Amino acid sequence: NAIGWGSPLTVDLVAGGAATLAAFAVVENRTINPLIDFRVLTKGRLVLPMLIAALLGAQSFGSQAPISLFSRADPNAYGYGLGLSATIGGLLLSTTATGAFIASTISDRIAGALTPRYAVAFGALVSAAAYVAMIVSHDGVLAFSIWLFLLGFGVGTLTGVVPAIIVSRAPEDSVGIASGIYNSPRTGAGVVAGASLALLV
Known about the structure:
Elements: H1 8-30, H2 40-43, H3 47-62, H4 64-72, H5 75-78, H6 86-105, H7 107-114, H8 116-136, H9 141-169, H10 175-200
Helix pairs in contact: 3-9, 3-10, 4-6, 4-10, 6-9, 7-8, 7-9, 8-9, 9-10
């Protein structure tokens, strides 16, 4: 905030980070025994599931900051929010975790009933519907908690199904590598989305 996003230092750090990552990927691809074998992504049709993992991380981790801010914000002071205490706000957010726990527990059954591809679509649609519902109807704690539960259910479905797709598509000798790579775009996108959405709010 002190120096701004357009300052030379900020731009240089972002560009330097991107260049370092690109150089790391080039070196790893030329190494016989790489730390991270990026070639695994092209061997088992893993690019799309990794992209889905990034979007999953962006929406699940990224939404936590603005939802927390909204639940705690005093509507009389800011014109929006539920005005909850820290304790009640934490309990409200636990409905998301409850929905995610339930869905991830039965995600294999959901995938078995719908096929993994349609289970991913189902989880994404449930999450999207929950976000839309939060935008349209957010005045009451009860309604908002229902939307948070649905959000958690969609996220939990995706969290259970997407890694299974990645493992099933990965070459047999690279399952561990694919699983490890899966966490990187998910976490990275979540970090960027969380910071961006919190800044926007």
